[in-house]
Amino acid sequence: MDEAEGQLIHEASQYSSMSSHTVGSAPSSPSSPDLSTPESPEAPSFPLPQTQIAAYNTFDALQRCLQSGDFSDLTIIHGSRKWNTHKVLVLSQSTVLQAMTNILDLSDHDEEAIQLMIEYLYTSQYNTSNTNAETYLDVHIKLFVLAVDFRIPGLELYASTQYKHALHNLTDSEIYFNSVLKIYDETTSEHPTLRFAVVEAAVIEMGSLLQRPIRERFFQLTSDVPDFHADILTYLLRNPTRPLEIEVPILCETCGPASEEEPYAVEHACRGCGEQKSIRFL
Questions:
Q1: Is 81 helix (H, G, I), strand (E, B) or coil?
Q2: Taking 90 as the threshold, does the pLDDT of residue 184 lie above it?
Q3: What is the value of pTM for the model shown?
């Protein structure tokens, strides 16, 4: 008999003895009921095996399976590192990874990005220990690019949201300029979320960016990255900071311009039949 079985038998005998004593004792008087709180049974003195403790919830179960590798049917490798993962979670969120084998060698990608991607696939979020402002922005760029490459739309949205939040709290203009260079070098106009983020930031902070000595660096950046310059102009065109003033032309010096609701009409003779035709302009 091992120690665990002995302990269980000992606790069972104690419980049986306590039950017999309770049944054999005189019943309590109805006028004075026992309101004392019963003592909680002592916890077993021996540790329960971890594998015999059920998970508290789905999140806890997923974390345990990732850490232990239990029920794994998909292996992700990066260099000497290996993660025993699960197809139902990984492949269901990436159409690109679905086309690969049961062993995914992702050594061509950034190791930290792969680790954080796996964390996201199991928890719908990721946490980085980087405290340096520029490195922190770079992490979100890497995760965004990884999400685009592997077609993980949820991760793409999450990484872009985290990047915009970090950019909102940034105060170093040089870090911002470097981040613009990386974004336009590593992303495309087909997935423009990060590009929109730095363009919007440039428009909002345009007054500061045009002040010396920053303006020379800003002008150099727009020259080196023409797509960034074009995106800023497009943003300003589509989102003017003040209403556009449109002057209505005067067609008749005597009568003046037409009202806003009244369209203009131009008459012209048809070259075929010679009949006067009217063209209306709203």
A1: strand
A2: yes
A3: 0.64
